[in-house]
Amino acid sequence: MKLLEDKIAKDGTVLPGNVLKVDNFLNHQVDTKLMDEVGKEFARLFKDEGVTKVVTVESSGIAPAMMAALHLGVPMIFARKHKSLTLTDNLYTASVYSYTKQVSNDISVDKRFLDSNDKILIIDDFLANGQAVSGLLEIAKVANVDVAGIGIVIEKSFQKGREMIEEAGVRLESLARIASLDDEKVEFVKD
Amino acid sequence: MKLLEDKIAKDGTVLPGNVLKVDNFLNHQVDTKLMDEVGKEFARLFKDEGVTKVVTVESSGIAPAMMAALHLGVPMIFARKHKSLTLTDNLYTASVYSYTKQVSNDISVDKRFLDSNDKILIIDDFLANGQAVSGLLEIAKVANVDVAGIGIVIEKSFQKGREMIEEAGVRLESLARIASLDDEKVEFVKD
Questions:
Q1: pLDDT tens digits along B87-119
Q2: What angle do CA A110, B154, A66 make, to 5 degrees?
Q3: Pathway, per UniProt (chains A, B) (predicted)?
């Protein structure tokens, strides 16, 4: 998505350790017009898949998931993150490891909101090692829902998330794919 | 807002302890069409106030804040919640007490995103005792930004948040105002 790549090139900042800082338009301050276009693009890509719900993880996934779901005309669910719970009878849960924070947290979705008639589109702001997506795929499996695909705003293609998703046989659409952040420069994957 | 009141009456559940559960359309699963209407209504109410940014707190405020900001044509910022930090040089922070969880957390906004030319609209999903709003008002004061007003999706009018905001002299617009949840029934404030 050219609009998004241009925005990343112009306003993104590369920090040491392969960190791409985009908190000025994606995950702290949000460029709402851009997010609307992001949502439209996800809707265009997945419009023929029979998506019944869009699912993401709080908090940074909510804005793009909201816009994708609005343009698809379906509800959006954001999985909650929390420390491991003892009472989980009414929840689908999965454990998600954060490489950045080096801790595991549970994510959960209330069982009332997913059933075997659902076909979900998973949306997230970033794909790096694929831990959050992996947790949502685990929840989808236990809930017995179909997965139409995964939509990512920014993919770090040099990390292993894409490989994991391809191995799982799930369709992946990333609106911007970053080949490298070496020398503090953003290099996109060539089409 | 009739559409919202009807939705609360139909799909909200009252739990003991004056808890209104609306996780099926507002703060876990989100009715995206309703949220679009909520955003339009906030934009209509505040369109003449010169709002430059919409500010909320993660996570449940993000969806209504996103839609309000989109319809106002401005960026949206979601303050981050976290344990108290030691390094806060680049952040505006405030402490927010949660009556539900009985803990205090800090909320923060990066200093790059607010300056004295800004006029913000504060949006949140719920207003009860006004702790989150109070934290955002504190940040606005330290950042020296004007506050155009506060937009709330559901106000529990029997708790003290409204009084606090009125005492602060800030305009408050709540799309649904709940007078009472006694006997596990939702009673709205009469116009």
A1: 778 999 999 998 878 889 999 999 999 999 999
A2: 50
A3: Purine metabolism; XMP biosynthesis via salvage pathway; XMP from xanthine: step 1/1
Tell me the domain boundaries of chain B: 2-188
Fold of B2-188: Rossmann fold (3.40.50)
CA B54 to chain centre: 10
The helix (run of H) or strand (run of E) holding residue B81 is strand B76-82
**Each residue's pLDDT tens digit, B26-44:** 999 999 999 999 999 999 9
Beta bridge partners of A51: none
Query: Is B102 annotated as belonging to a binding site?
Result: no
Walk along chain B (191 residues) in steps of 10 and give the mean pLDDT of each run: 98 94 97 98 98 98 98 98 82 91 92 97 97 98 98 97 97 98 95 75
Structure tokens at B143: 């950042």
Q: Which amino acid is at A59?
A: S
| Cβ within 8 Å, pair A30-B78 | yes
Query: Chain A contact for B1, CB < 8 A?
Result: no
Q: Does ipTM exceed 0.95?
A: yes
Place of tokens 């924070």: A101
∠ CA(B171), CA(B175), CA(B178), 5° rounding?
Answer: 100
Nearest CA to A55 among A143, A187, A162, A157?
A143
Q: Does B20 touch chain A (CB under 8 A)?
A: no
In sequence order, which ranges of chain B are alpha helices (DSSP H)? Answer: 2-11, 32-46, 62-72, 131-143, 161-167
| Separation between Cα atoms, residue B87 and residue A114, nearest integer Å | 41
CA end-to-end span of chain B? 11
